[in-house]
Design a protein that fits this description.
14 helices, Translation Initiation Factor IF3, BirA Bifunctional Protein, domain 2, RNA-binding, single chain, globular, eleven-stranded mixed β-sheet, five-stranded mixed β-sheet
Length: 488
RNA sequence: CGGGGCAUAGCGCAGUCCGGUUAGCGCACUUGGUUUGGGACCAAGGGGUCGCAGGUUCGAAUCCUGCUGCCCCGACCA
């Protein structure tokens, strides 16, 4: 089969594309900029989705579903918002096709033009706030804590599987609150949920921060972000949570009566993570042999390969081991395919990033042992069958922890504090990674740096320590460090 | 939207410069057999409007014109 993948050193983006394709995560589709998410890739997303959904519900949220289409007029009600998304919207103009009179298949029926064009949602704030107006009258209706799992479309010029596609899957939470403080607390709560998910489930360390005015979501007063660092030294915005103030409430006239019978506009948040997380997962852990998955999100955590081939005796043993592991909640697959040899299977499962492989060999079995191979380190161990269940269970949590630690170490190594602009440019250019430095707080400086170096202001860390310093660009005083990087 | 490349079997490619039998190779696929502790081997098969539309020619995958799609690199973005 010879499914070799390009090495990271040779061509990082080709390496990424090879993994997506050869691990069976996604295919290019017939539609430009859109991908087909294949079952294995979708299974990873489902695991992410299931966990996030639990976390949202544990924090009091419920799911609902709003329409794919948004009347064009809605989008223009919030000035910042429309400005942010106008350039990348798909628009529905007609509702019918007809046979081409010239005989070339079908054409759009010119008589079926819509009176008001519909926008395919790039995000749902507008349609949701239009709806919330009817749902909210009193402070007793608040808070409204709703999430939806949906697809959205942003007509991107350049796309990459999972990282940036024209259509993507995500969740978007939209909440309404009686006070600014409560809405802000909600935005921060979700920010915490995202960070916990990234670290504890994806084993992807993130910097929690807030965005500069320039990088803020279109229509938000504050945007919280989790920023991850990929192996090529580029930053990935992995999730955002926005405090929307009263902007959408004012745009859509959503008011409520408080307990003093006074009318006020509602305070809002919105927050989302998308299938982009799958891209982040790939680029955080994988190596030149293929995908590496953290056990908590791996669709298959353990694969059992009979050696040299499936035989009744081996299968019986495999079923027995699989039964033990499954009873502990471990996701196990037994590979009974007789047409492929063990070596082929080993390579294949390494490509697919399955955390633990059990090589159930005839000769090993005679000695009551089994070969255990871990994907992340490639280490192989011979383990007694008597304690295989507990061994595998603790190995899975070791792998999960080890992946996180390794990613943290990488981030530490590629986070550089700089004190002046020359150092800044040198690090951005040669080393990459996060650059921690002083900034004068102005959009002007931020844009100049971006223009000069292609590095963007990723975030102002929430836990930044107070420290007097000078802006690397303007020399003006600054009281905390911020994070710059080249980003996806 | 700029710059570069590519389009031939499911995938990867050769053939195109210099037109000429029946369009070929590797992988994959089907069947049979032999194998089997790190990507097995042998044999026999199936699979193609050579991206699309015109044109030149006795004859076009090959030459000419136009179109379309995709990939890579840049500017915009989760």
């Amino acid at each position: 089969m010879a499914k070799e993948i390009t090495s990271r050193a040779e061509n990082y983006s080709q390496w990424y594309n090879d993994i997506v394709k050869k691990a069976g995560l996604a295919d290019n589709s017939a539609v430009r900029g859109c991908m087909v998410i294949k079952p294995y890739g979708y299974a990873i997303w489902e695991n992410m989705k299931d966990q996030l959904d639990r976390m949202f519900k544990d924090t009091g949220h419920v799911n609902a579903y709003f329409p794919l289409f948004i009347p064009k007029s809605f989008l223009s009600k919030e000035a910042q918002h429309v400005e942010g998304f106008a350039k990348e919207c798909a628009v529905v103009t007609h509702h019918r096709l007809m046979n081409d009179p010239a005989g070339h298949g079908v054409i759009v029926d010119p008589a079926a033009k819509l009176e008001e064009e519909l926008i395919v949602r790039p995000t749902s704030e507008t349609i949701i706030w239009h709806t919330y107006k009817d749902w909210i009258q009193s402070y007793r209706d608040l808070p409204l804590l709703i999430n939806q799992w949906a697809n959205v479309v942003r007509w991107e010029m350049r796309t990459r599987p999972f990282l940036r596609t024209a259509e993507f899957l995500w969740q978007e939470g939209h909440t309404a609150h009686a006070t600014a403080a409560e809405a802000m607390a909600e935005a921060r709560l979700i920010h915490d949920v995202y960070a916990e998910f990234a670290e504890q489930y994806m084993a992807m360390p993130v910097i929690k921060g807030y965005k500069s005015e320039n990088e803020r979501f279109a229509g938000a007063d504050e945007t919280f972000t989790i920023e991850a660092l990929m192996q090529d030294g580029k930053a990935l915005q992995a999730g955002t949570s926005h405090f929307l103030g009263q902007n959408f409430a004012k745009a859509f006239d959503v008011t409520f009566l408080n307990d003093k019978n006074e009318s006020d506009y509602v305070w809002a948040t919105s927050w989302g993570v998308s299938t982009r997380l799958v891209g982040g997962l790939i680029m955080t852990h994988s190596d030149d042999d293929g995908l590496v998955l953290p056990p908590r999100l791996a669709p298959i955590q353990v694969v059992i390969v009979p050696i040299p081939k499936p035989e009744p005796e081996l299968l019986e043993k495999a079923e027995q081991i699989a039964g033990l592991l499954k009873s502990m909640g471990i996701r196990v697959k037994i590979d009974m395919d007789e047409t492929k040899r063990p070596g082929f299977k080993f390579a294949e499962y390494e490509m697919k990033g399955i955390p633990v492989r059990l090589g159930l060999g005839k000769r090993d079995l005679e000695q009551n042992v089994i070969e255990v191979a871990r994907r992340d380190t490639k280490e192989k161990m011979s383990v007694s069958l008597d304690r295989i269940d507990s061994f595998v269970q603790s190995l899975l949590s070791d792998i999960q922890a080890s992946l996180l630690q390794k990613a943290k170490d990488f981030r530490t190594e590629y986070t550089t504090e700089v004190e002046n602009y020359d150092q800044f440019k040198e690090v951005i250019e040669d080393k990459g990674g996060f650059v921690s430095c002083h900034w004068d707080g102005t959009t002007e400086t931020e844009l100049k740096i971006k223009e000069d170096t292609k590095a963007t202001l990723r975030c102002i860390p929430v836990d930044a320590v107070e420290e007097q310093g000078k802006c690397i660009y303007s020399g003006k005083p600054s009281n905390k460090r911020v994070i710059f990087a080249k980003a996806y």
